Amino acid sequence: MIVIESAALEDGGKGIRFPLPALGEFATGFVVRFNQLPYAYVNQCAHVSVELDWNEGDFFTAQGDYLICATHGAHYRPDNGFCVLGPCKGKSLKSIEVIEQNQKIMINIASISK
Ligand code: FES
User: Fold this and answer.
1) By its UniProt entry, which Gene3D superfamilies does this protein fall under (predicted)?
2) What is the fold, at CATH topology level, of the domain defined by 2-111?
3) Between the CA of residue 114 and those of 13, 16, 51, what are the distances in Å?
4) Which of 7, 67, 73, 75 has its CA at 20 to 30 Å from residue 42's CA atom?
């Protein structure tokens, strides 16, 4: 379980990355806040297996309405990881269970396996 402070995650702002050892030594996940709720995903494009963020923690488009893959520009819905635009349209990011309680965000990385 990864636990972060609720205040660390701004709505539509930078995401927070975390390691996902179950998927490999260098695998990461990330959590963002969108319309007040936290959402966590495996940091891997549904198109080619690369990380999404263009600068560390930058996952949103300039408008803040979609998550974007820096490599070829796939757009994903922040609230369910569904790809609406780009080469992997119709596919989805792998989501990770996340709950927010008592000013903490808890990410259940044990819910992810290969
Ligand atoms: S690698 Fe992400 S859109 Fe191609």
Assistant:
1) Rieske [2Fe-2S] iron-sulphur domain
2) Rieske Iron-sulfur Protein (2.102.10)
3) 29, 22, 16
4) 7
